[in-house]
Design goal:
By secondary structure, the protein is an all-alpha fold. Helix content is about 80%, strand content about 0%. The protein has a domain of about 25 residues.
């Protein structure tokens, strides 16, 4: 009886069909938890990046075509 249980446990331990899915679920869960913990910091960072991007794009287009500056 103990040998049968031992074989079942060993068979279950060696079976790895669902491990890829489990790993992906765990990675997603950890990413979501980190995002929730640092939500305000991430929001501020993204807003700052988009503000810098908008500023730099505006400067670029003013250099390319000065007649289309915002001072019309």
């Amino acid at each position: 009886m103990l040998q049968a249980i031992g074989k079942k446990v060993k068979g279950f331990w060696k079976e790895d069909e669902g491990l890829g899915t489990l790993e992906i679920i765990l990675i997603i869960a950890v990413t979501v938890i980190i995002a929730l913990i640092f939500k305000t910091q991430l929001t501020t960072l993204i807003k700052d990046l988009f503000a810098k991007l908008t500023n730099q794009t505006g400067k670029f287009f003013q250099e390319v075509d000065p007649s289309k500056s915002g001072n019309q």
